[in-house]
């Protein structure tokens, strides 16, 4: 059992937040480690690889634990990404707030200065936004992500000391997670050749250079280089050019020749930048997007496609026990049915069937939302069970007569399905499938002409859809389905803009992780296209936030109380003087949270062996940013260099640019806000009132100050 010591003389809630957040440190960064959660009472264990699954397995019955769980669930339910960042910053800023309390800073000032500091950071990082436009204009002629992955992730060699031993095809999944990194301090690190993509945003004269020319230029530049900021996921390449922000969100690069404006206008480039070391999941997302785009172009239904990438029309079907190579993207709806229905599906697959859509449960006792039972009526019977069985049998017979009358062979229900009815329908050559998502029903309604009904007894000719094909998903080798009691079935109809991603894994414990990773990649791409902007990734925004806060703290020390009125309005003179005194301290503690974040990212790159080594590298860049006079320009210059990664610890004859790394804007910022809001909420809670008798039964160790997770 994992436990943390709680100091009763300091803020208990903040310490609990820090303790919970400590359990998720390994989920941050490119090299993520899975965890086994073991239940000592039930003697059960579960393998988890994400923050959401971690919190689902922990004991979060305390007030602070419940608040943390709600914050994580809200982030995940809305964006499906950013939860690891949220959890880590909760811990980092909890420690920062606790340190401020220890130094005697009033709580009101901690809340005010931290909030204003984060808002100032959010405004500052707007300069690192890159517009995303017209990625669909040449989607049919551009190279797919699958094609890129062949050149982006070639045969790799694991550096000694990483402890990673996998097959060659498995290395493709962790290539950009653990290998192609250079240190912040400028030292060269052995790194495999990961990317062969010629970036769309590079100048024509740069792309036309021969490898030997680039090699000579790199040799000349190496002598005067002070630092290198590169990281496949969390730190990026650099270049010696000037950047300014133009109206419309464009980043303009000023060189000695002519100013050039850059933006992301290629779908494959955007997907590579948002894959964050998970090419296998992003490849499936790319296939789903292209298939959905193709379906939207030929769709004949009445539904207008306002946004080319409709994530609500993409679904997953998990089939554990099958090889990874069977994972694919298919048009239509794929779901699992019992093996007893396999023969029925084979009989229906050579014909187009009629369909009925039920928007609720398909059971005898189901009543729609808002239905009120008759009051003051009580049924008395000598044998209640006989009456219930008779009632269900009568209802089942009536439903079958309705289906036979309208020649319906397929029924899709949003809720549960009566087992007795399903068996009866199977015997009469009719397939009934329950637990179907509402968006799937809507897609079938639009394409087949069916109308959703609350009860099958309400079905008429106008409610029945037609033209649906029912087939087996694919023929799976018999040795791959041993022990599997279900089979996959594919439902399609012409003009239906619905895509299903089939996820397979021979290890059942990894199935949930694989599905979570897919949805994370899909959500990143969705919000990037929806907002039409992304952040320059690779830790660029975090470095800028850290440099900006340190600059604000330095200004406060130099200017004294001149700026205090701008931070606190309508306050007393005592509070204003206190703000001038404590403001640099609070800003420094807030910046320490960013520093801890970046340090952990570097540690999780499998490059740095200690926190002190990572901290030294970060400090080197912070000093360079401060000396430059403009941290944002310095970061942009460092980010834009092409030759920041040295292949095989030397100068390679195949010098090729590394694709940009991108981050989604709103999910990242909302993760920051939720983290700080939670910390400040707990900070302002002075005590916890416990009711009931359960607290008297706590163990002596817990009473002495141990927090059990």
TrEMBL record:
Q: Where is the signal peptide?
A: none
Q: Which InterPro entries match?
A: BBS12, Cpn60/GroEL/TCP-1, GroEL-like_apical_dom_sf, GROEL-like_equatorial_sf, TCP-1-like_intermed_sf
UniProt name for this protein: Bardet-Biedl syndrome 12
Sorted alphabetically, the Gene Ontology BP terms of this entry are:
chaperone-mediated protein complex assembly; eating behavior; fat cell differentiation; intraciliary transport; negative regulation of fat cell differentiation; negative regulation of stem cell differentiation; photoreceptor cell maintenance; stem cell differentiation
Q: Which Gene3D superfamilies match?
A: GroEL (3.50.7.10), GroEL-like equatorial domain (1.10.560.10), TCP-1-like chaperonin intermediate domain (3.30.260.10)
Origin species: Capra hircus (Goat)
The portions of this protein that span the membrane are none
GO CC annotation terms, alphabetical: chaperonin-containing T-complex; cilium
Which Pfam families does the entry link to? Answer: Cpn60_TCP1
Q: Give a GO molecular function annotation for the protein.
A: ATP binding
